[in-house]
Design a protein that fits this description.
2 copies of one chain form a homodimer.
Chain A lengths: L3 E6 L7 H14 L5 E4 L2 H6 L3 E3 L7 H8 L20 H13 L2 E8 L1 H17 L4 E6 L15 H19 L6 E7 L6 H4 L14 E3 L7 H14 L2 E7 L31 H13 L2 E6 L3 H4 L6 H19 L5 E9 L4 E8 L15 E2 L4 E2 L1 H7 L11 E2 L2 E2 L9
């Protein structure tokens, strides 16, 4: 029987999720896998046998380097949570039928919380039916909210982009000799890791942001306005970083304080957006000064033109380590990153039971949030700093970062 | 008498306006200027004698390289239009008194339309009072709307950022196997050059945006919705680029079609923003599909981490050429860029009467807008392409682009 493996990507894209895909592909080939299959659009596409042979797409070392530098999930992604095993055993049988049809010995899933839930359920079911197929999780999320692992691949590059963009925005705000307030809105509904990264803009050549609000603590609009008023007494240009997910003590999202209903998607979900806009408008109304809101928006997760080399390397490593572990017989595990030391930064990989990781959200420790919830501690800065270091130079062709071609439309 | 010169920056910042400042500074020193003064916050700061000695800030070759790589105006900027000479002769006398006090022989102003108006008026007044002081304009604007010059420094880097970000956003949109529409909002109130740059995302590895709307032509909301509907029949992921300044046939800005009043600044001016948000919301309402709006926002003009080498080099050249021209006795002129050839791209500088440049807005030729106002021609792409080529590597320190320190708070 062939020794084939299959890999999928799931959840929100990042700038380096394809580096993990490259790590899985290359390590599997190096360790002697016959075929490395890729499922299009995660487990959802897998169920429709939307499956490709990765070797037909990644033919050369140049292809592999382009893949590492291409943001967004090369194989496509999905947001699809498997039902409980008891609820739909037929679905699980179907999955294992397909796995057996393709003679798969190991299944790799690159993703966040929900994706680890998939690994957990599939490895559990393999136990039940005595299948030898191994299931390994490869961590990925810009939100950095996975449990146990020191941090998640994707976070470092998003943090680097946020820090650098914030630094440039602060510089831009200094240009006029007038009072002005900029509110930057940063991703992260429940966990403030990304918003905290705005603190890294501060340095020898930048005074940094003035206020930072994470979603871990309730946000007090009145107190915010008082603080802005105090700052406006002292300086011209004020820059504030807020998480898109900040909520009042009553639990209401700040962006819901406007009476606009916008962005209701097809499921009727209000989309998270408008926090900075609401606050900037409020500031103009209260103080009559110039204000602007900037949503860092989608570029936080897809700015392949500015990635962290540490992050993109670790993304590759966790992909490769997952393959090695599976080939060593491990299953139902996720690769974690273990920080050996912060100074100098040394990090290694390990494997961990996915049951203790799936569906748990890791937030910023409350004692890393300072000054009454308006700043973050040096510990948080020290934690993030090694993760944004160095660059993987984009391959620039005709003035733009080159990506790998996706030519698998069905 | 000393041979001192003075330089100022005016109008909106760009990613390369400081490269022009570096060009003025270095060339003036090389050509034997005694002192190179910088006025803080343009002519407004000048009137308050907010003047620095540039040599105290730019001491080393490393400083000069950092200056070239630092976005936003190092000297600070202003939006200040001089009154007509007849209206306030005393103000002009005050300006010349200060110029004489500092023993200035040449005055350089880096800016756009309004800044060239300043050069025009000051050089006119020098004629009137028989002053030997020379006044030269150095072109700058991301909007590319200055007359006579082939293009303006600042535009190429903004275009490169827009093209690259658009390419990344298109890639991000492909990730899920569901219908989704992204509307990207790009700067440029009256001229569509920047929005047109989104067309450059298209290439061997990217299918490009689906629709582009420039402000040069009226925007028809109903027709837009019909086109989106047609596209949704054909493909999953649709990306549209719109100028922030698109207006209906009745002349109303699209962002004003919402009934929200937001962002009224202290002068009661509505700020341009919300066009993409309005359209994305409309699409969700009409089609029930996922939609999102992305404002490229301030980063278009301050993304020092991704500049065009052609642009940053030309920015330096126009600064230096202005100094050389002034030292040759020219006054009341602006440096222009003259494209000698597009393939291969060869460009040189020339000097041109500022009277024929000031206050004129150059728009995209209507025959470069195609497909009933929903796309741009290959001519526009060919025009922009040389301007985004190559990079000036940022100097990365601890994971972020390093900027020159501003330490001149008064």
């Amino acid at each position: 029987m062939a020794n084939n493996v299959i890999v999928g990507q799931s959840g929100g894209p990042t700038a380096v999720i394809n580096s993990s895909l490259a790590g899985v592909f290359k390590t599997a080939k190096d360790l002697g896998a016959d075929k490395v299959y890729g499922m299009r659009h995660g487990i959802q596409g897998f169920l429709e046998k939307n499956i490709i042979d990765m070797s037909e797409k990644i033919r050369t070392e140049l292809d592999l380097e382009l893949l590492k530098r291409t943001p967004s999930a090369f194989l496509g992604s999905c947001r699809f949570k498997l039902p409980e095993i008891e609820a739909d055993k037929a679905l699980y049988d179907k999955i294992f039928d397909i796995l057996n049809e393709y003679e798969i010995s190991a299944f790799f899933y690159i993703g966040g919380n929900d994706s680890m839930d998939t690994i957990k359920k599939l490895s559990d079911y393999a136990c039940v039916i005595n299948s030898p197929i191994r299931f390994m999780g490869v961590p990925k999320t810009i939100d950095n909210d996975l449990a146990v692992t020191d941090h998640t691949p994707g976070f470092g590059s998003a943090a680097k982009y946020i820090a650098s963009a914030t630094k440039e925005i602060i510089r831009d705000g200094l240009v006029y000799d007038i009072k002005n307030v900029t509110v930057i809105e940063i991703m992260g509904r429940n966990a403030g890791w990304l918003t905290g990264a705005a603190a890294l803009a501060k340095g020898e050549d930048c005074e940094g942001v003035d206020l930072i609000y994470l979603p871990e603590l309730p946000f007090d609009v009145d107190d915010f306005i008082v603080k802005i008023g105090e700052l406006l007494q002292k300086k011209n240009s004020i820059v504030v970083a807020v998480s898109e997910g900040i909520r009042t003590a009553e639990g209401e999202y700040v962006f819901e304080l406007t009476n606009h209903t916008e962005y209701v998607d097809s499921f009727g979900h209000k989309q998270l957006s408008g926090t900075a806009r609401y606050l900037a408008t409020l500031i103009s109304e209260k103080f009559g000064c110039k204000s602007r809101s900037i949503e860092l928006s989608t570029l936080q997760r897809c700015a392949g033109h500015l990635t962290s080399r540490v992050d993109i390397t670790e993304a590759f490593q966790v992909g490769g380590s997952a393959v090695r572990a599976a080939f060593d017989g491990e299953t139902g595990k996720m690769i974690i990153l273990k920080r050996v030391s912060s100074e100098p930064y040394i990090c290694t990989t390990d494997i961990y039971d996915v049951h203790e990781i799936a569906n748990i959200e890791k937030k910023v420790p409350l004692d890393w949030i300072t000054e009454g919830g308006t700043n973050v501690s040096q510990q948080l800065v020290n934690y993030i700093k090694p993760l944004i270091q160095a660059e993987l130079t984009p391959i620039m062709i005709t003035g733009q970062p080159r990506h790998i071609v996706v030519d698998m439309e069905q």
